[in-house]
Design brief:
Blueprint lengths: L3 E10 L3 H15 L3 E14 L2 E14 L3
Antiparallel strand pairs: 1-3, 2-3
Length: 67
């Protein structure tokens, strides 16, 4: 039997949504073992002077519990 857990994280980037996702997964992988998938729940941007300055993603990462 496999048991998995889901954790919600938020990540930001000044480059792109894809970069924010990559950074979030990379950081989560340092703390959470056995990452298996991620679901992008939300995306938003911060705007200054008519230009996008921050890309933010909220994602739910799934990891399999050892045991």
């Amino acid at each position: 039997m496999t048991v998995a857990k889901v954790s919600e994280i938020t990540s930001t980037s000044s480059k792109s949504f894809a970069d924010a996702i990559e950074k979030g997964i990379k950081r989560a992988n340092k703390t959470l073992k056995n990452l298996s998938s991620a679901w992008i729940a939300d995306q938003e941007v911060e705007i200054e002077n008519g230009k996008v300055t921050i890309y933010r993603v909220r994602m739910r990462v799934t990891f399999v519990l050892e045991g």
